[in-house]
Structures are given as C-alpha cells and as structure tokens.
Specification:
Helices cover 58% and strands 2% of the residues. By secondary structure, the chain is mainly alpha-helical. The protein folds into two domains: 10-81, no CATH class; 91-139 and 149-160, no CATH class. Strands 1-2 form a two-stranded antiparallel ribbon. Strand 1 and strand 2 (114-115) form a beta hairpin. The chain is elongated, with a radius of gyration of 34 Å. It starts with 9 loop residues before the first helix and ends with a helix.
Amino acid sequence: MPEHTPAPTPSRAVYGFAMYFSFRLFFCLYLIWAVVPEHYFRSLGITCLPHRYWSVAVPIFSLTVLAAFTMVIYPSLGLCMTPDIDDLRTIRDKVGCKKNIKASIILSPKIDGKKSAECCPNSETCYKKKYENKGTDSNHRSVPVLKDLEIWEVSKVLYLK
C-alpha cells in the first residue's frame, strides 16, 4: 500500500482517536474552569488558574481574528495578486501564448501523405494556402487551432466596423 494515501490505517486510527479524546478532555476542562466557582478549586488545592476573564476573552479574540482574516485579509491578498487593469496579463496568459505542439504536428505541410517541397517559417499558413488551393469542402468542417485573439483585432472588429 502506498504511504501517502487517505485510506484508513491503524496508525491513523490511533492518532484520530487520541486527537478526538484530547479535544473532548480539554473542552470539558475548559468548561469546568469557566463555570465552576473558584472556592471549589481552592478547596481542592488548585490555586494557579488564570483569571476568568480569559475564559471569555480568548474565544472572542480568536473569532475576531478569524472574521478579520476571512473578510479583510484573504480578499486583500487576492486583490494584491491580481494584475492591474492595463497590464497585458489581463488580456493574454502564459498558456495561450505557447504553440500547441499537437496542432503543429497535425497541420504540418503534408498533403495526401507526401511532404511538401516548399518550406516556410509558418507551417500553419503554408498548409492553409495549399489546402485552400486544392479546393476541398472539408476545410469548412475543420476546427481551427486554439489561440488568443489580439486585443487590437477584437477592438477593430467591434468598434471600427
């Protein structure tokens, strides 16, 4: 069995039981400390307990810190990691800029299983020109390669018409 698996193992069962038992024990001790009057503790010889103020202050302080984190700090971290509105990363990401290796293999300049004699720097353009010159109607059924649109092209189509 692999070591890093979420499946239950005997050691995890022991640790889980120990954590469950210790949480229950400490919670019961906390409730006893918070509710039972001090003269009962003195009669048992226990004199070194913290002030009762802390039985209320620590949970309230913890909940305040949790609320501040969830409502202020966590969203602020997200805003700090977001690029500015005029940054190029809001338009184009790292994944869209990389060439699709499978697409370049599929769209290599081969027609009918024969390698093309001509070679150009952009194999997609060469293949497209040769395929359009051949005059087949399957060109309309093909799916174009995934790529990012240039923001200038989009603006030109949308606003300059």
